[in-house]
Amino acid sequence: MSCPECFTGAIHQGKLLGAEETIAGIKTYVARSSSNLTSNSTIIFITDAFGFNLINSKLLADQYAAKIGCTVLVPDIIPGGGVPLDTLTLMESIGKPVGWFDIRGQIQRIFSFVRMISIVIPFAIRTRNAFPGILAYARNARANLSPGGRLGAAGFCWGGLQTVKLSQEPAIEGGNAQLLDAHFTAHPSGLKVPDDYLKAAKAFHVPISIAVGDEDRFLSEKDVELIEAGYRQEFGPLENDFEAVVYPKCGHGFAVRAEASKAVENDAANQAVMQAVQWFKRHLN
After folding, report:
1. pLDDT, tens digit, for every residue of 245-260?
2. pLDDT of 75-93, one tens digit each?
3. Distance between CA 111 and CA 116 in Å, rounded?
C-alpha cells in the first residue's frame, strides 16, 4: 500500500492551539475554534502513516476547527504508533543521486534502504487490522455528538483508506442509520479503483470530496474519472454529493506534507484546506 512518496515531505512549524485528551480510551488531539463554536458537529481526522509523530496533522486540524467552527478529533489510533520522523530523512537519502564510484554514498543509500524496509514492513503488518478500532472510535464519537451535531471524517494517505471504509458503516452495528454525514479525503492510498469507492457510496451515499495531485501514483487523473463516472452511473447528478479536485504538479502527500519552499505544492495544500472547509461547512453546519 506504500510508495516512496508516503514517506516524503516537510515537517511544518507552528503553535498548536488544541490539547490532548483521552476519548474512548484513545489519546486524542482535540482542536476547537478559538472563538465560540458555530457548529455542534465533529470531524474525525485520520492521519497519514506518521500519526502523532508528525505535527502537521494537528496543525491542519487546528485550521479546520478555526475555519469550520466545529470540533476536530485526531486520535492516536495507529497500532504501535506511526512511523518515525527520521523516515523523511531516510527517504531523502535514498532518493539523492549518488555516483557509481561514490562508495560512501552507496553504503549510506543501502543503509537507508534497509532501515526503511525495517520500518515499512512492520508498519504494514501491525496496521492490517487497524480498522475495527477506528470504527469503534468513530461510533463513540457519533454517540456523543451534541444535539443537532453531525459527524464528518477527513482521511489522509493511509487515513484515507480508513475513512472511505468508515463511510460505508452504520452508526451502530446492524443499524440502518449512517455513521458519517460527510467525508473528505486527500490522496488516499490502498484502495481499489473504482470498486472500493463505489462500494462505500452504495451503502449510505455519504457525500465525498477528494483532493489529489496529478502526479499521484496511488490515484491518477484517470482513476478519478473512473470514480466520478461510476458515481454518475449509480446516482445521477453529483453536484451536492461528489467532487474531486486534481491539483497540477502535485504528488502524493501534498495536502499534509507540502514543502513551503515549493510554491506550487504549498499553494495547492492551502487550496485543499479550503476545499475541505467548504465541503464540511456545506454538509455539517
Report:
1. 999 999 999 999 998 8
2. 999 999 999 998 888 777 7
3. 9
Residue 187, number of CB atoms within 10 A of its CB: 29
To which H or E segment does residue 43 belong? Answer: strand 42-46
Helices H, strands E: what count in the chain?
9, 8
Q: Quick one: average pLDDT of 21-28? A: 97
**Domain 4-79+127-284 in CATH 3.40.50.1820:** yes
Q: How long is the chain?
A: 285
* pTM over the 0.85 mark: yes
Other CB atoms within a 10 A radius of the CB of residue 94 amount to 19
Angle at 170 between CA 146 and CA 227, to 5 degrees: 110
Mean pLDDT for the chain overall: 91
Amino acid letter for position 257 = R
Tell me the H-state helices in 48-155: 56-68, 86-95, 103-126, 131-143
- Between CA 210 and CA 82, with CA 170 as vertex, the angle to 5 degrees is 55
Measured CA distances, 285 to 6, 81, 182, 281 (Å): 32, 32, 11, 5
For the chain, the domains span 4-79+127-284, 86-124
Q: What are 149's three cell numbers?
A: 451535531
The single-letter code of the amino acid at 232 is R
